[in-house]
């Protein structure tokens, strides 16, 4: 048997889910889709699987308030009572992500309008216009009624507000948005002169002389003003957040339980999660694998790392993932045996203190009937159910991990404004993608066994040995100054192409491309030299001045090249061909006590290995020495270090251990190398004292 836990969760557990005394385990529970006699069976099965938490009532508005102002809480009382009696705690949802038909009928103006003027709903789900007074009032009415009734219920240990703000639509072009956007702009700019200057309206004669003429950027004959679109993205995010804050505050009038809402880290760039993270009591996330990607577990790791970063390193809740296939991708691939556990342990290793699923019992009707669940259509005589029960039992052995923390030596910039700006039209090459560069650099770091935080360019970076800035197109001058100060103080910064190009208004920096990073990198960009589709070029890397030498390696670049002007940096890679043969391609620059690297072309994950090996050495990052495909993450708490090892390969692997360990899943003592069989997971505790 595993030993008694040595780590007692610390003060960061203030406001945690009272009464959930283990790693939280469960999922979305939609009992209204089933006759009541199934509910008792559900609770019995939840106990069998070790489920201790469910998210309840996420889409139940029409049943809870069948007519405006008329509530029916009887069924919810009975469900919560059954769960409570069975020891299952509840994250009670506010159902405002699926408005009832009567609300649409009474207030058609409150529907979301898309860019082309098409109104959305009813009959699906997704919020109504976030700035529509009728929606906001109705959402607060049902939220308040739920909080009043259940705010002190002992089974209700937290609040799940709404569902995935930003999905399925985040931009609304309704008359309400029009009014609210103008108000938001007046507040932001104070005067039309300031707005005209920020938006650069002298271009194409877009100058505004009257606030009433300022519009949401709906469809236009040609590209809309990019600064206007960027502000609309900011405004739309703020409008969604205002909906959350209003519901949260209504709940707080009646309940002291923590309030959260489920994010979609990495899959919904329209919500600035760093801003949202400041508003929730506990950060929560949903994650689904992209089935077409056989290396989806790397994307999963990045989503988990972003969630932890948004939570400021504190533990977070995984509120949804899938036991097997989803239903909404072009080809919905079932998870292989053991894959659900590997996914779960990767989230856990990266800081999640809950493992939850969409959903508890598979739906018989509706758009998601082919989505997997904890109780599949096949029932309990099934592989999925057996794996669900096993996972619950294993999580029950890991209570002592709760509250322990993950340490990252590497930071990767993740800046929502840069996403919003870079993804607009009329960029130098449609081959460039902020997200693609982030994914590729993250993949390299993952393969090399480094744990990564995803950070904003303006935050304190002093704790990181290496900061990577992949295609940070929009970079405010003060954020660039922060990166420069990081290098000056001894940090290693790596910047990839198309970075530091525009300011917060999507206007090119006055001193030219990449000018704000010139001190840190010792180089700037005279002209972009993007490649034709399908073309590639050669970078001679590590060569001496004559283009040869023992370390010289040819690397293939695609998509992009720059005409660089050296301002102190040394070229460590030179274009052997392409649009600027002989020009610097990769540079390195000592600045203060640190170093700035610049990579001016698109290197794939294999080519990056060569460059990154030198960057790691410069940053003092030791190679992990772990076989590729064996994911190893560590959490520390008290005097314990927990190593979560996940073998994604089809071969058995060995993990060298620095000290004797205890396997928390089996209770076995482990010394020397720990065996991690193909596809398996191990959780090992060592003592750091
Ligand atoms: C999530 C959503 C769930 C369910 C799930 C299916 O985005 O929050 O309600 O639809 O997708 O994968």
Annotation keywords:
689 residues; alpha/beta; TIM Barrel; Rossmann fold; Immunoglobulin-like; 10-stranded mixed β-sheet; 29% helix; disordered N terminus; binds beta-D-galactopyranose
Number of strands: 29
Q: How are the strands ordered across the major sheet?
A: 12-11-13-14-21-20-19-16-17-22
Q: Percent of residues in beta strands?
A: 15-25%
Largest sheet entry: 10 strands, mixed
Tell me, briefly, the overall form. globular
Helix content: 25-40%
CATH 4th-level superfamily of the largest domain? Glycosidases
Q: What Rg do the Cα atoms give?
A: 26 Å
Give a brief rundown of this model.
The protein is of the alpha/beta class and 689 residues long. It contains 17 helices and 29 strands.
Task: Write a structural description.
By secondary structure, this protein is an alpha/beta fold. It folds into 3 domains: 24-178 and 228-401, TIM Barrel (Alpha-Beta Barrel); 410-619, Rossmann fold, CATH 3.40.50; 630-687, Sandwich (Immunoglobulin-like). Helices cover 29% and strands 20% of the residues. The protein has 17 helices and 29 strands. The strands form 5 sheets. Strands 12-11-13-14-21-20-19-16-17-22 form a 10-stranded mixed β-sheet, sandwiched between helices. β8 (316-320), α11 and β9 (352-357) form a beta-alpha-beta unit. The protein is globular and about 80 Å long. It starts with 23 loop residues before the first strand and ends with a strand.
């Amino acid at each position: 048997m595993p030993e008694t836990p040595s780590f007692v969760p610390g003060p960061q557990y203030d406001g945690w889910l009272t009464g959930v005394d283990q790693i939280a385990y469960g999922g979305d529970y939609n009992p209204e889709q089933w006759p009541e006699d199934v509910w008792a069976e559900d609770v019995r099965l939840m106990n069998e699987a070790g489920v201790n938490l469910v998210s309840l009532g996420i889409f139940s508005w029409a049943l809870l308030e069948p007519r405006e102002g008329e509530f029916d809480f009887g069924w919810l009382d009975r469900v919560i009572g059954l769960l409570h009696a069975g020891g299952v705690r509840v994250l009670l949802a506010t159902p405002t992500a699926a408005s009832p038909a009567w609300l649409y009928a009474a207030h058609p103006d409150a529907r979301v309008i898309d860019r082309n003027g098409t109104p959305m709903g009813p009959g699906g789900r997704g919020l109504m216009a976030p700035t529509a007074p009728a929606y906001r009032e109705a959402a607060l009415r049902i939220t308040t009624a739920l909080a009043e009734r259940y705010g002190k219920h002992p089974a209700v240990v937290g609040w799940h507000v709404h569902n995935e703000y930003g999905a399925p639509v985040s931009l609304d072009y309704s008359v309400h948005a029009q009014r609210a956007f103008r108000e938001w702009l007046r507040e932001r700019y104070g005067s039309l002169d300031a707005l005209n200057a920020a938006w650069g309206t002298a271009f194409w004669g877009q100058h505004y002389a009257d606030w009433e003429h300022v519009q949401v950027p709906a469809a236009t004959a040609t590209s809309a003003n990019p600064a206007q679109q960027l502000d609309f993205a900011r405004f739309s995010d703020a409008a969604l957040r205002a909906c959350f804050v209003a519901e949260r505050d209504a709940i707080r009038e009646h309940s002291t339980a923590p309030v959260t809402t489920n994010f979609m880290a990495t899959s919904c760039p329209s919500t600035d999660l760093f801003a949202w993270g400041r508003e929730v009591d506990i950060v929560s996330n949903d994650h689904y694998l992209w089935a077409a990607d056989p290396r989806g577990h790397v994307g999963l790791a990045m989503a988990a790392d972003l969630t932890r970063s948004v939570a400021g390193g504190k533990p977070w809740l995984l509120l949804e993932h899938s036991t097997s296939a989803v239903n909404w991708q072009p080809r919905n691939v079932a998870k292989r045996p053991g894959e659900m556990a590997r996914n779960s342990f990767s989230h856990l290793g990266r800081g999640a203190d809950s493992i939850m699923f969409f959903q508890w019992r598979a739906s018989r009707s509706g758009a998601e009937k082919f989505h997997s669940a904890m109780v599949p259509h096949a029932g309990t005589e099934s592989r999925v159910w057996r794996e669900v029960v096993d996972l619950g039992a294993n999580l029950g052995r890991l209570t002592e991990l709760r509250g322990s923390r993950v340490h990252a030596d590497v930071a990767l910039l993740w800046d929502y404004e840069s996403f919003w700006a870079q993804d607009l039209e009329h960029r130098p090459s449609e081959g460039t993608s902020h997200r693609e560069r982030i994914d590729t650099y993250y993949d390299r770091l993952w393969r090399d066994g480094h744990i990564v935080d995803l950070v904003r360019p303006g935050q304190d970076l002093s704790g990181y040995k290496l900061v990577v800035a992949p295609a940070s197109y929009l970079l405010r001058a003060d954020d660039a100054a922060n990166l420069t100060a990081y290098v000056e103080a001894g940090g290693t910064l790596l910047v990839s192409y198309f970075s530091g190009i525009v300011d917060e208004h999507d206007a090119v920096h006055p001193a030219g491309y990449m000018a704000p990073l010139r001190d840190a990198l010792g180089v700037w960009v005279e002209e972009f030299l993007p490649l034709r589709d399908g073309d590639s070029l050669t970078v001679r890397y590590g060569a001496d001045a004559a283009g040869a030498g023992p370390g010289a390696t040819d690397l293939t670049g695609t998509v992009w090249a720059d005409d660089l002007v050296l301002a102190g940096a040394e070229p460590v890679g030179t274009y052997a061909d392409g649009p600027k043969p002989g020009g610097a391609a990769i540079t390195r620059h000592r600045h203060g006590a640190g170093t700035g690297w610049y990579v001016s072309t698109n290197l794939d994950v294999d080519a990056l290995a060569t460059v990154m090996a030198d960057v790691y050495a410069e940053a003092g990052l030791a190679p992990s020495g772990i076989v590729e495909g064996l994911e190893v993450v560590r959490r520390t708490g008290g005097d314990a270090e927990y190593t979560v090892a996940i073998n994604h390969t089809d071969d058995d692997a060995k993990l060298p251990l620095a000290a004797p360990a205890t396997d928390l899943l089996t209770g076995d003592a482990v010394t020397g190398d720990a065996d991690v069989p193909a596809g398996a997971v191990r959780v090992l505790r060592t003592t750091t004292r």
